[in-house]
Design goal:
five-stranded mixed β-sheet
């Protein structure tokens, strides 16, 4: 039977989610409207306080920002490209820097707002574009500090900063550019990585659940097709007996009968597996661990299972997570992987240990983070295709089931412990089955 059109069984990378705009133009326009409102309010308050500055050029710069927003509203692009976002944010940096130059430069208390565009860039653009905008911001701040026109108080006196204080303000703005841009970019990158990894987790779990539901469809198909196949087999056998005088037709009837027998055998085998998938809501712990380890049984290292006598929930998410943990152990084991369980004090503990190199000490505290690199810079096992998501997916799925995970060295290789409260994982195999899962049309 052809493979079902499900997502691939391997880890799903960040390229699978649909690509999004770096930032919506509507967002840039809205932020600029807030900036324009703030600039106009600052101008009005300054005039009320009697502070003197070049009013006409300042209003012209604010009008330029208004014109830019109106142009974006009248003819919005279908999608915002990274280059388009850089152009818009560069315009904002230039406009704010020019306003600073006309209103006292570093002496302007609103000078820190020049950090806003580069911070927005850090949250939505890649590192190269963010660095380019940051360099432009640093250059414009420095030029503004040198050529700024001073503000004048109501008495006509210039409002200037002492050289030492001006240098301190300039330094603070330089640090702000680096800190805010770096901090925002790092946080956004981690959130995006986590979002992509969760997407991969959801896809992996959905695949396991769909495969489990497919088992019920297969079981039903095997049951329903049993009778017509038996009829075909019976008629073909009778035709073969009656066609002794037509050897060519008799051979066709015999081939038809044998094919019906073969189909019945295949469906019988699939039906048994399907019933297992559909009805087994609880299974012995050993059976669940063997199910998780089975895909990696022939990859080199021996997988040895030592399990207590306990019936647990047969959850596809738990099986998939344990399979990922066992796969990671097999990928790095020298000769053996041991999977063992222990029950005590109301807890079930499953330990997976290998005799490989173990986890690097520098990464041990980060095990389970998405897109973490391999243990020693490369896998030891042929066929390894890790993308740093296996342990993250396993950790996420197991924690949703109520488990607590621990990662350590000393097996002599890596050791992973998974601990469940017994009331969260134990199951009664003799309990009623309940309703079968709904099947998609």
């Amino acid at each position: 039977m052809a493979d079902p059109p499900f997502p691939p069984s391997g880890p799903i990378g960040p390229q699978d989610p649909p690509e999004a705009e770096p930032i919506r133009m509507r967002t840039l326009v809205l932020l600029r409207w807030f900036a324009i409102a703030g600039q106009l309010a600052a101008v009005i308050v300054a005039r009320i306080m009697g502070i003197g500055f070049a009013l006409e050029p300042v209003l012209a710069l604010i009008a330029a920002a208004i014109a830019m927003n109106l142009w974006q509203v009248v003819s919005p692009p279908r999608r915002t490209s990274a280059r388009g976002a850089v152009v818009q944010l560069t315009f904002d940096v230039i406009q704010i820097s020019a306003l600073m130059a006309l209103t006292g430069g570093l002496a302007n208390p609103f000078a820190l707002l020049v950090l806003a565009p580069v911070t927005v860039a850090a949250t939505s653009l890649d590192a190269r574009e963010t660095v380019a905008l940051g360099v432009a911001t640093v250059a414009l701040i420095s030029i503004t500090a040198l050529i700024a026109l001073p503000l004048h108080g109501a008495d006509g006196q210039e409002l200037t900063l002492a050289p030492t204080l001006a240098l301190g303000h300039w330094t603070a703005l330089m640090i702000g550019v680096v800190f805010f841009a770096g901090y925002a970019h790092r946080v956004t990158a981690e959130l995006q990585a986590t979002s992509n990894a969760l997407f991969a987790t959801q896809m992996a779990l959905a695949r396991e659940q769909r495969l489990q539901h497919l088992g019920g469809v297969v079981a039903a198909a095997a049951h329903e097709m049993g009778t017509p196949l038996a009829t075909i087999k019976l008629i073909a056998a009778e035709l073969a007996d009656e066609l002794d005088d037509r050897p060519d037709l008799q051979a066709d009837a015999i081939a038809l009968r044998d094919s019906a027998v073969r189909c019945a055998q295949i469906l019988r085998s699939m039906g048994r597996a399907g019933k297992d998938d559909l009805h087994l809501r609880a299974a012995p712990l050993r059976a669940v661990l063997e199910d998780a380890a089975e895909p990696h049984a022939g990859r080199g290292p021996a997988v040895r299972i030592q399990a207590d006598s306990l019936d647990i929930r047969r959850d596809p998410a738990i099986i998939h997570a344990l399979r990922n943990l066992i796969q990671n152990a097999v990928d790095f084991a020298a000769s053996e992987v041991v999977v063992e369980s222990q029950i005590g004090n109301g807890w079930l503990c499953v330990t997976i240990r290998d005799d490989g190199p173990g986890y690097p000490a520098a990464l041990l505290s980060r095990i389970g983070d998405p897109y973490l690199t391999s243990r020693r810079g490369g896998a030891q096992r042929e066929g390894y295709e890790g993308m740093g998501l296996g342990l993250f997916i396993a950790k996420t799925l197991l924690e949703r089931s109520g488990a607590r995970l621990g990662f350590a060295n000393g097996g002599p290789g890596a050791v992973v412990t998974v601990r469940w409260p017994l009331d969260r994982i134990a199951a009664d195999a003799r309990a009623p089955l309940g309703d079968n899962p709904a099947q998609d049309a």
